[in-house]
Amino acid sequence: MSCITVCWLNSVKELRLRYTSFFVSFLAFGAVLAPTARGGEPVFNMQAAPVSEVLSPYRLPASFYTFDPDEYWAEPEDSWWLDFSNWVIRQERRHGVNVQSMGAWADQTLSGSSHVLPNNESYLRLGFAAESEYSNLASFEPEARFRLDVPTAEERLRLVVESESEELIPLAERERDRTLTEPERTETETTGALRYLTQVGDAINLSTDIGGRLRLPPEAFWRMTASKGWRIDEDWAFNLKQRVYYYHTEGWGARSWMGWDRPVSNGWHFFASSELEWIHDERRFDAAQIFSVRKRLNNRSVVTPRIGVLGESQPSWRTTSYFADFTWRYRMYEDWLFAEVVPALEFPREDSFQDRASVVLRIEMYFSGTISRD
């Protein structure tokens, strides 16, 4: 019996309360309506299906289920996987509330309000990832990231604590983050900052951070980010982001990012992005050009194929890597347990552009604050 079947059987009451009442009401109403030959106007059909048939789960759309019809009433089987999945579900229900409560407490304490403020983007993300390459068997590595992002007493001021400093991660690593496991990522240490939010004119969003890397001795940093989006026409959208930053020991740098996107046929959405980063201490530009498409297959699965090219300006302008990857992301349970499969192919300059293939398998759990997630 599949994991999804087990999870459904363990939470059937919850699912019925959330979804069945809506579908049953809709189907029951549709069952007693039928179009006539005169203009197709609906009239009540006195020969409607029996109530027991209308209420049957067999009348729900096929997309509502992720298992076969003969498993509707299957009994759960005792197994180590059932015990493990139940343990995971209990951890989310227990600790997800704690993370949310911590965010709510921070909201109330720092803002001086007796009510929880909106847009609390605090989260804790835990997971395991395994990467397999040529002649290299997969080995699971733990992963952990977190963010505390809550308002303060001033409406435009926020406290931001993050597990990593995005500016100190190489551009090539940021662009290929989902194809890497924790040992392959750059350790940047936790940062804490006060963020001031404002607008320039009516459309440019501006944020300024002043904080430090939480270590001994601490390191001060400053960064400013400006962003703006335009709707070019009914299909095309254009976004622009500029960031300037300074770290006491790492020096200063700047990043320019621009992206285009539009819907294409059959539910696919096209994205293109260009990024250029200036690293002042090394007097070097890093560049990236990425093309991708994205499609939601159903209410659980999303696929994202990508191709990209990376480059640098020292010792001269040159390509450092070509890559292609394909991400299949599956929502295993509710909105907090996800699985990913990411096959990737890279052609790095350091290996004379010889192909380097890998597959990453990842399980992620989200313990979030009050902000909603897709």
What is the topological layout?
Elements: H1 3-10, H2 12-31, E1 33-35, E2 42-44, H3 51-54, H4 80-111, E3 123-133, E4 140-151, E5 157-162, H5 171-175, E6 191-200, E7 204-213, E8 219-231, E9 237-247, E10 251-263, E11 269-279, E12 284-296, E13 301-312, E14 318-333, E15 337-348, E16 356-368
Antiparallel strand pairs: 1-2, 3-4, 3-16, 4-5, 5-6, 6-7, 7-8, 8-9, 9-10, 10-11, 11-12, 12-13, 13-14, 14-15, 15-16
Helix pairs in contact: 1-4
Number of DSSP strand runs: 16
**What is the CA-based Rg, rounded?**
25 Å
Largest sheet: 14 strands, antiparallel, barrel
Tally of separate helices:
5
| Intertermini distance | 27 Å
The CATH topology of the largest domain comes to Porin
* Helix and strand element order: HHEEHHEEEHEEEEEEEEEEE
How would you state the average pLDDT, rounded?
Answer: 77
Strand order of the largest sheet: 3-4-5-6-7-8-9-10-11-12-13-14-15-16
Helix content: 10-25%
CATH class of the largest domain: Mainly Beta
DSSP strand content: over 45%
Tell me the overall shape. globular
What does this structure look like?
The structure is a single chain. This protein is of the alpha+beta class. 18% of the residues lie in helices and 45% in strands. It has two domains: 3-33 and 42-77, no CATH class; 94-368, Porin (Beta Barrel). It has helices at residues 3-10, 12-31, 51-54, 80-111, 171-175; strands at 33-35, 42-44, 123-133, 140-151, 157-162, 191-200, 204-213, 219-231, 237-247, 251-263, 269-279, 284-296, 301-312, 318-333, 337-348, 356-368. The protein has a 14-stranded antiparallel beta barrel with strand order 3-4-5-6-7-8-9-10-11-12-13-14-15-16. Strands 1-2 form a two-stranded antiparallel ribbon. It starts with a helix and ends in a 6-residue tail after the last strand.
